[in-house]
Design goal:
Layout (H helix, E strand, L loop, with lengths): L3 E4 L2 E4 H15 L6 H8 L3 H13 L3 E3 L5 E3 L2 H5 L1 H4 L3 H17 L2 E8 L2 E8 L14 E3 L4 H7 L4 H7 L16 H14 L2 E4 L6 E9 L5 E10 H6 L3 H15 L11
Antiparallel strand pairs: 1-2, 3-4, 5-6, 5-10, 6-7, 8-9, 9-10
Helix pairs in contact: 2-3, 6-11
Length: about 260
């Protein structure tokens, strides 16, 4: 059994290289992968891969979704807190979301899509913030969050059809969107108004308004949202416009121009 191989003047530890190969593969794909797909892509025997994946899941470097497929884990967010300071999206967004929280006196979130989930990058609390499970590093289903829907309404319909072909919608609350057909109707409304809504779909009592952040090619990078008690958020009529406006400002900072991109 060869534990190491000599390459480029250095010894390469095979198991370590496989860990990095798995992480790089999952990062490169827009959807989670099954054990068989990972094995086929990387040429790792099933017997070796099983224990490797199990160890990586237990260490939280990767995780399984509800379809038993693999995606990057929350441990990478924890380790990346220092690196996050150099992340363009975070840096370009921070001034705007801090100012939004001050202006609205509500909780502001920044998140980005990965496969069929949203990864929360940061959260700016206000003195009226309510208790929520959404925290930096936490993953949430993309279809049940305002942040996720803000990203989804910018996706091409063919991409959405493929993405949700075999997705089973989890009922997180009584308000959670039930299926892809219902989701498509929501996304059409959201796209027309330029912002999405999470009406207690993830957590009872939590209402969110969100808009997408785009890059210079009009590709979705992430989204920002304002969250709080339903009645309070709905009664503050300036929230949707403020969220849309600041998502656009961040998009401009990320290189977006109006050329060829529809901006509400």
């Amino acid at each position: 059994m060869h534990i190491c191989e000599f390459k480029g003047g250095v010894y390469i530890v095979k198991s370590a290289k496989r860990v990095f190969d798995i992480l790089n593969l999952l990062e490169s794909r827009s959807l989670p992968l099954s054990e068989k797909e990972i094995s086929n892509e990387l040429g790792i025997p099933g017997s070796s891969l099983f224990n490797l994946l199990k160890t990586m899941v237990e260490s939280r470097y990767i995780r399984k979704d509800y379809q038993n497929k693999y995606l990057l884990g929350s441990k990478l967010i924890t380790l990346g807190n220092r690196a996050r300071e150099d992340l363009d999206l975070y840096n370009e967004s921070l001034t705007y979301i801090k100012r939004l929280s001050d202006e609205l006196n509500e909780t502001i979130f920044l998140a980005y899509p990965h496969g069929n989930e949203m990864i929360y990058l940061t959260k700016i609390d206000s003195n009226r913030s309510i208790r929520t499970a959404a925290q930096p590093g936490v993953n949430k289903p993309i279809y049940s969050t305002g942040l996720g829907k803000a990203c989804l309404f910018m996706y091409d319909l063919k991409v959405l059809d493929k993405m949700f072909k075999n997705i089973v919608f989890q009922k997180l609350t009584t308000n959670t969107v039930k299926n892809y057909s219902e989701l498509k109707k929501q996304l059409k409304t959201f796209k027309n108004q330029g912002y999405s809504v999470d009406d207690e779909e993830n957590e009872i009592g939590l209402y969110c308004v969100a808009s997408p952040i785009l890059n210079d090619k009009g590709k979705v990078l992430g989204a920002i949202s304002c969250a709080g008690p339903k009645e309070r958020i709905q009664n503050n009529k300036i929230i949707p416009q403020k969220i849309k406006q600041n998502a656009y400002f961040i998009s401009r900072a990320m290189g977006l121009t109006k050329n060829g991109v529809e901006i509400k």
